[in-house]
Design a protein that fits this description.
Length: 607
């Protein structure tokens, strides 16, 4: 996690760095800092806490003169989020300042070695070893010192470096952590992701692992890890500037919830036409390759994993293939039963989640065909997978994903239809295609049908625990619903397969325990209603999520949330929406920092 940014040009660097850091704050927000070079002078400003504090300290950058600089927003791994541990870190001779995103796995041994050699450490971070190594190896060329330094490092890093001997220059290095170069006119940049750059440029260069960039106001040079100069393609960013702004909403999360009809439409529209689902991106996958698939393994982390849980049903039903769900952090160390007859589907909004990348590499090493469902173009997962299908959700800033999840789920649904058709298991796709095309409209209806959510949040916010129950597809959505509630409202929320209640959890039900019951799958409605009756007779307060036409529920539940009727196979895309809104308003009632929940970061680039 952590976000890094760098700027070199003719104007004042600090305001550009601070603006970039604000955009990257979702990556980590426990401390922050900038280092700005004015002539040969480097000055460092750091704070424990948010970027707003850094803006205050530096008078929005006005107090820090200089046209070259680097910045960092931190999600602490090694060392508490104090000012001392905040980046940038300085070398002992004061000539180098460095910012780092990632983890240096062999830092302890390096630290000991450097201390033996007389270097003094100011922080507890793993990062600080890097700046001392650079100082140690510096003999007139920053590039050479960096090459020697990274040869000593094990782990993941995106680095930004400035050196007082080279005014006007910034260096960036990438290894297993996201980093892009922004190409400007008379100024250049680097950043952890495009959101920090869209205000300044649409032209970017994606660095590969092991590559270095040497930037000055008028030049960009990229080298590989041996110092060989590389020629790189400049790509265009398609996201618009407003997409990374709040646009009048109080929080990014609410804006992103409301954007879901458009995001899902943008994801679906290019893949459906003439009554068929088609993925251009998968044209190179031969029928032979597809027929050889004996099982599908879906792997991911967090909500992306839950999107996989929801997507599973359509694959099994339509493609007739077994689907195995594996958390990426588990798969990577599990000696998985994956071979060349397995299709491994990797899901990731950011495309940079460390465990997901490791699981993908493991699957490839075992000969599986790999297909990535990713939102960020050019991200590591997108580049590594054999096939990549993008979700076109646009930038997602709130730490808790919303449109990321719904676009992933919709994409999985389309993939299931597409593969089933190619496998000859469905002749006429038209009813499925119509269901896909209706999803954006249905999401909007799911928003419009529930004006009572802020009032329900007032009723349910003051609880220590909430239970989410459901069966089958409803259970898959309950997993994500409970996660949303936990991560932003800090209320303990557990999701249970409704049929499992009797095996333990029902012991926790007492007078007024809130139970959120998902009941949108007609094949199990009766069963779930029985479970609702069971918890109600033990005093539970039940908030049911169901169709408006489900008259029976009116008399069973205490409160109701509605979605329009939709085929259960694809209902997750719709069903999650009222639960996102409920989590949002409960968190708001509880005065939580909704876009930046405590201890979390959006892009988990460390293991
Ligand atoms: C973090 C985010 C979640 C996300 C998960 C996986 O925990 O807060 O919203 O689902 O990482 O991230 P990815 O980028 O791989 O989808």
């Amino acid at each position: 996690m952590c976000g890094i940014v760098g700027f070199t040009g003719a104007r004042s660097a600090a305001p550009v760095l601070l603006d970039g850091l604000k955009k990257l704050e979702y990556r980590g927000y426990d401390s922050a800092g900038i280092a700005v070079m004015d002539g040969n002078e480097i000055s460092v400003s750091k704070v424990s806490g948010r970027i707003a504090g850094l803006c205050e300290k530096t008078k929005d950058g006005a107090a820090v003169p200089g046209t070259t600089g680097i910045g960092h927003t931190r999600w602490a791994t090694h060392g508490a989020p104090t000012e001392e541990n905040a980046h940038p870190h300085l070398s002992n001779d004061g000539r180098f300042a460095i910012v780092h995103n990632g983890i240096i796995e062999n830092y302890a041994a390096l630290r000991e070695e450097l201390i033996r050699d007389g270097y003094h450490f100011q922080s507890e971070t793993d990062t600080e070893v890097i700046v001392h190594l650079v100082e140690m190896y510096y003999a007139g060329s920053v590039r050479d010192a960096l090459i020697k330094t990274v040869n000593r490092l094990r782990g993941s890093y995106a680095l930004g470096v400035i050196c007082s001997e080279e005014p006007g220059k910034i260096y960036a290095v990438r290894e297993a952590s996201p980093l892009i170069i922004g190409v400007g006119v008379g100024e250049n940049y680097f950043a952890s992701d495009v959101t920090a750059l869209v205000n300044y440029t649409r032209s970017v260069i994606y660095l590969e692992d092991g590559e270095f960039a040497e930037l000055s106001e008028g030049s960009i040079r990229i080298f590989d890890c041996t110092g060989q100069e590389q020629s790189k393609k400049v790509s265009r960013i398609l996201w618009d500037v407003q997409a990374a702004e709040k646009g009048g909403y109080e929080h990014f999360m609410l804006k992103e919830i409301m954007e879901q009809p458009a995001a899902v439409k943008a994801t679906i529209a290019p893949r459906v036409s003439g009554g068929k689902v088609d993925f251009e991106e998968l044209a190179a996958m031969s029928d032979e390759e597809l027929r050889a698939v004996r099982k599908i393994v879906v792997t991911a982390c967090g909500s992306a994993y839950y999107a996989g849980c929801a997507g599973r049903y359509a694959f099994e039903r339509l493609c007739g293939l077994p689907v195995q769900l594996e958390l990426a952090s588990e798969l990577r160390y599990s000696d998985p039963l994956i071979d060349d007859t397995t299709l491994v589907i990797v899901i990731s909004q950011s495309g940079e989640t460390a465990d997901t990348i490791a699981a993908l590499k493991e699957a490839k090493a075992r000969g599986a065909k790999t297909l990535a469902v990713v939102n960020v173009v050019g991200s590591t997962v997108a580049k590594l997978a054999d096939y990549t299908v993008y979700t076109w959700a646009g930038p997602e800033i709130a730490v808790a994903t919303t449109k990321g999840y719904t676009t992933q789920t919709a994409t999985l649904n389309m993939l299931a239809i597409y593969f089933a058709a190619r496998l000859g298991r469905i002749e006429d796709q038209s009813k499925y295609v119509a269901a896909m095309q209706a999803l954006p409209r249905r999401i909007q209806q799911a928003i419009d049908l529930n004006p009572s959510i802020p009032a329900l949040a007032k009723k349910y916010h003051d609880n220590r625990a909430l239970f989410f129950i459901g069966r089958n597809t409803d259970y898959a959505v309950a997993l994500e619903g409970a996660l949303k509630m936990k991560e932003i409202s800090y209320i303990h929320a557990e999701s249970y397969a409704a049929g499992e209640l009797k095996h333990g959890t029902i012991a926790l039900i007492e007078e007024h325990t809130p139970v959120i019951a998902l009941c949108c799958n007609p094949s199990v409605t009766e069963k779930t209603i029985s479970n609702i009756v069971e918890v109600k007779s033990r005093g539970a307060e039940v908030l049911a999520l169901t169709f408006r036409t489900n008259r029976q529920m009116l008399s069973v539940a205490d409160d109701l949330l509605f979605i329009p009727e939709v085929d259960a196979l694809f209902s997750a895309v719709i069903e999650i929406v009222p639960l996102q809104l409920l989590a949002y308003y409960v968190a708001k009632e509880n005065g939580c920092d909704i876009d930046k929940p405590k201890n979390l970061a959006k892009s988990v680039t460390v293991e």
